[in-house]
Structure formats: C-alpha cells, structure tokens
Amino acid sequence: MISLFKKIASFVAIAALFVPAIAGAEGEIICASTTSTENSGLFGHILPIFEKQTGIKVKVVARGTGAAIEMGKRGDADVAFVHAKEQELKAVEEGFFVNRHDVMYNDFVIIGPPDDPAGIRGMKNAADAFRKLAKNAPFVSRGDNSGTHTKELSIWKKAGIDPKSGKAYMEVGQGMEKTMRIANEKRAYTLADRGTWLAVKDKDRLEIAVLLEGDTALFNQYGVMAVNPEKHRHVRHKEAMAFINWLIADEGQKAIGAFKDANGNQLFIPNAK
C-alpha cells in the first residue's frame, strides 16, 4: 500500500511539471500586459464591454513588456498586449506567438522638475535632451526591461551615451506610476508613457511636468499577439483569438478611442486598421 502511495505521489509530481505556472479559471483567459495599460485604467474601461459581449473573462497580469512576453513564452498566459514592437516581432519569428496586430498608440514624454534645472524644456530632439541630462541631472529609469525602459535605452544609444556611467542615474525596477513618484520625490527626470502620465499625475499630486514631447522617436505603438498553441497546447487559443479579433475590429477600436481621463484627454489612439 505504501509503495502504491509513493507511485501515485511520484506521478502527481511529474504531472505538475507539465501544468502552467498560472492557469485561468474555466472560461477565462490570461492576458500578460504592461503596467501602462493597467495603470491608465484602459482595461477597466474595455474589458467589461468585451466580457459582456462574449462571455469570456480576461484576467490581466501587469508586468513590464519584457516580463509579459516571457510569460507568454513559458505558456503562463494566453495572450500578450504589450508595447515593444521589435521584441514582439522577434518573439513571433521565434515561434512563441502568432497573429500579432497593431492595436493603438500614444507617445512618450520626458518629465522632470517644473523649474527644469537641466534646461531641456522646449527642445525638439529627445537624444539631444538626454545628452544634457547626462551631465549629472538626476534621472530615474524603470530599469525593468519594459517597453518604456526599452525606448529609454534606445534614446541613450542614439545619444551615444552609456547612462550607467553617470552618478545621477537610478534604476529602480518599478512600474511607471511608482517610477514617476520616485522622480517626483527626488526632483529628477524620467521617461513616461503619456497614458499613465495623464491618468495618475493629478491622482498622485505629482509636481513634475512634461518638458519635452513631440519627437517622432517618442512614438509608442501597442500590439497584441496570441501564445502559439503548438508550443503550449494548454493555452486557450480560441478565446485568445476572440479577444484579439475584438480588439482590432470596429467594436474594440471604438472602445479604445472612447477611453479618456478625468479631464477628457484621449489616452490611446486606435490604429489596428
């Protein structure tokens, strides 16, 4: 009898290795997404509409884009909704995801102390502004391999600067909202997506302000893609595709376009077409 129990326990332990680390409830899909879509309140606006129309529940796990993509690669999510297009396309090329689509966009902004001690206000080129900031202006980086962090690093690279060589560069490993709070407390500069900035600046009573915007290098594209069911047979591919198809169809695009902050600002521009 003891031997039988040992065999059963061994079988259960081995079977557990093939169960995803995160599993949604019946009729529920897991969406690995960015902190910006969560912090901005977008999901709180669009998901009740989708769920009412389809009966499919969506559980959002908010991470930096890099971590969200890794969740999908492991099979711990059914769909990824992120904003680092080069990383997304690479993950599709590697076979981890299928059916990637552009969904919406906004832009990044450089924010910092209102008195702007580094003197970047009104500049038009983000790389030029980063060169000024590198001269010991305190800069708070998310440092979390998120889409925002990826964009920030691309600007430093374009500026020809290693940001870690500066004494005033801080990597905090936090989401966008917490990173902005730290920048606010330290009277530092940071890069933020406009959606999160608009959604939380009044709520968190942030004193920092937008100092640079409008550079085409600050364009911020969001995309959605399904985890490849051939890689992970347990994923709910049919439901994931229902969510993707809704997002890129007129119904989802209208819902995204209708989402605004308390001051009537549109936080994301739909562009699936």
Largest sheet: 8 strands, mixed
| Shape field | globular
Distance between the termini: 64 Å
- Overall strand count: 10
Explain what you see:
The chain is of the alpha/beta class and 273 residues long. It has two domains: 23-106 and 221-270, Periplasmic binding protein-like II (D-Maltodextrin-Binding Protein, domain 2); 107-219, 3-Layer(aba) Sandwich (D-Maltodextrin-Binding Protein, domain 2), CATH 3.40.190.10. The chain has helices spanning 2-16, 35-39, 42-54, 65-74, 85-93, 126-133, 147-159, 176-186, 194-200, 237-248, 250-257; strands spanning 28-34, 57-63, 79-82, 97-112, 139-141, 169-171, 190-193, 209-212, 219-227, 269-270. Strands 1, 2, 3, 4, 7, 8, 9 and 10 form an eight-stranded mixed β-sheet that branches. It has a two-stranded parallel ribbon with strand order 5-6. Helix 7 links the parallel strand 5 (139-141) and strand 6. Helix 6 crosses helix 7 and helix 10 packs across helix 11. The termini are far apart. The relative contact order is 0.19. Mean pLDDT is 90; it is low at 1-23.
List the helices and strands and how they pair.
Layout: H1 2-16, E1 28-34, H2 35-39, H3 42-54, E2 57-63, H4 65-74, E3 79-82, H5 85-93, E4 97-112, H6 126-133, E5 139-141, H7 147-159, E6 169-171, H8 176-186, E7 190-193, H9 194-200, E8 209-212, E9 219-227, H10 237-248, H11 250-257, E10 269-270
Parallel strand pairs: 1-2, 1-3, 5-6
Antiparallel strand pairs: 3-9, 4-7, 4-8, 4-9, 4-10
Helix pairs in contact: 6-7, 10-11
